[in-house]
Amino acid sequence: MQWLVVALLALAMELFSGSFFLLVLAVGLAVAALLAFLGLDAAVQAAAAGVVTLAGWSLLWRKRRSLRPSSPPMSLDAGAPVQLLAWTGPTQCRVRYRGAEWEAELIGPRHPDERYVVARLDGNTLEITADNA
Questions:
Q1: Count of alpha carbons within 13 Å of 108, Cβ hemisphere only?
Q2: What is the mean pLDDT of each run of 10 residues along the chain (133 residues)?
Q3: Which pLDDT score, from 0 to 100, does residue 72 have?
Q4: Whole-angstrom Cα distance, residue 2 to residue 48?
Q5: Comparing C-alpha atoms, which of 20, 22, 47, 21 is closest to residue 32?
Q6: Which CA distances in Å does 129 have to 18, 65, 83, 123?
Q7: Residue 7 C-alpha from the chain's centroid
Q8: 3-class secondary structure, 71
Q9: According to the model, what pLDDT value does residue 33 have?
Q10: What is the pTM of this model?
Q11: How far apart are CA 86 and CA 101, in angstroms?
């Protein structure tokens, strides 16, 4: 009976999270409840719950991993010019872009008197490259 109560609690929590991981846990706990109803030993019940839950989580993890894009999405800022303000390290600098100052990381070689453009956005840091145009 305890397995079924915990399975229902996991199912109720899943309704709020929407990640399917708690749903898999609820299924594993329901299998344990079924085995308890059939009169099997508590160790077998716990092992079955663990195996079913871990197998389900593994399938979910693999499915999510296969759905991820293989390359990062193209940045809408790519190719936009930036104004170099100051170098703060060998490849780090401050730039002005869209009216604000940004931290930037240079990709590729550093050239004096070169124009730089946005290659992509990595969190709050612009990745820039020399403008070859």
A1: 12
A2: 90 87 93 94 94 94 80 73 89 90 88 82 86 69
A3: 61
A4: 15
A5: 47
A6: 40, 30, 12, 17
A7: 27
A8: coil
A9: 94
A10: 0.52
A11: 11
